[in-house]
Amino acid sequence: MTEVQVTAAPGTPFKQEIKSANHTFISDATKEFGGGEAGPNPHELLLGALGACTTITIQMYAQRKGWSVKNISVNVKEETIEDPNNAGKKMSSIVRDIKIEGDLTEEQIESLKTIADKCPIHKIIDGPSQIKTSVERALDVVGI
Question: Which value, to the nearest 10 degrees, does the dihedral of the CA atoms of residues 81, 39, 9, 13 take?
């Protein structure tokens, strides 16, 4: 199980501190929404997670196969488009462009494209998943 803890940084409107088992980093809202842009916004983090997972998945697969991959870059962008199933509604569309440098055949490139769609973050975003939410009141600790 993977777990992170996100805490609103005191004294700043939307800056968040994100802690994982071994790392601490920041997310923030854009200035357009009242943030200070102290770190990537949540959309950028999501797109970054997809890009990183894609690259890692391709690297692992190519390494297992013994294929010559010198470099991989992934450009991921989110666009808002018309929802084809709900007239007048908008939806997000994620576009992922992958560039692979190496001595590879067209068949190997096609195989790597198929593997890219199997990266765990892609599966979470695209496949069935659920989010369970609970909210509880935190006790204010004063005078300790």
Answer: -60
